[in-house]
Design a protein that fits this description.
236 residues, eight-stranded mixed β-sheet, globular
């Protein structure tokens, strides 16, 4: 693999091993299926998706990409995990969704090829899996049109997030496979905000995501201590 590509081979291998489980709502990807409507609603309220050109960076098996396509967007999903992309393509065919497509390409390469091409760019649960998250943020900023929106989600880095996202989610509740996350790669909101500002994106708002293990319910809140999303906009 090209060493200049911003990717961790171990991370790719990890998600490729699980590829066939992407669309099973009771599998390791159950949390993604559960939080997807919350993420979609938060994105769509700020940037209505119908008729928009949308890019989903680190799309995996296509859970969010398909949901945005169902809202009427023309969606391109990109990822470097070959097997996950094949699952995404197959599911789109089975779902007869003509307005979603996928490519195996690094976001930095796509930015060089198609700058200022998208009305909305999403990059969810991906920044904590790459060696250089600032590079991904910069590429997303280059890909969005002036006036367009860029949305990120990731995990905060603090004792609470270690307890909830790793100890709780991977070892106690077994919501995720062990080793899904590496605490050192978690990103504080202040760090992500600085990446966004350096890339020329204006911050529009943040939301946290919480989980109750007793009711098995997720909801959005103002608590960004563990999972959080950030909305940004490129000046027109």
């Amino acid at each position: 693999m090209n060493k200049t590509v911003n990717v961790d081979p171990a991370e790719l291998a990890k998600f490729s091993e699980l590829a066939h489980h992407w669309w099973d709502p009771e599998s390791e990807f159950r949390p993604l299926h559960q939080i997807n409507p919350l993420r979609l609603d938060w994105i769509a309220k700020q940037a209505p998706l119908a008729g928009r050109q949308v890019l989903d960076v680190g799309c995996g098996g296509g859970i969010l990409a398909e949901a945005m396509a169902r809202q009427g967007a023309e969606v391109l999903g990109v990822d470097l995990a070959t097997r996950s992309l094949k699952v995404a393509q197959l599911h789109a065919l089975e779902s007869e969704l003509a307005n979603v497509s996928y490519r195996e390409i690094a976001v930095e390469a796509l930015a060089a090829e198609r700058p200022a091409s998208f009305d909305v760019v999403t990059c969810m649960e991906m920044l904590e899996h790459v060696p250089d998250p600032a590079s991904v943020v910069k590429a997303c900023a280059e890909l969005v049109k002036p006036g367009g929106w860029v949305f990120f989600s990731t995990l905060n880095r603090n004792p609470k997030s270690f307890l909830f996202a790793i100890v709780g989610a991977e070892y106690v509740l077994k919501l995720l496979p062990r080793g899904t996350h590496e605490f050192a790669k978690f990103i504080k909101p202040s760090e992500l905000a600085s990446y966004c500002r350096a890339a020329g994106l204006d911050l529009q708002g943040t939301r946290g995501m919480e989980y109750n293990p007793l009711t098995k319910r997720y909801w959005l809140s103002g608590d960004t201590n563990v999972n959080y999303m950030i909305a940004t906009r490129k000046p027109a």
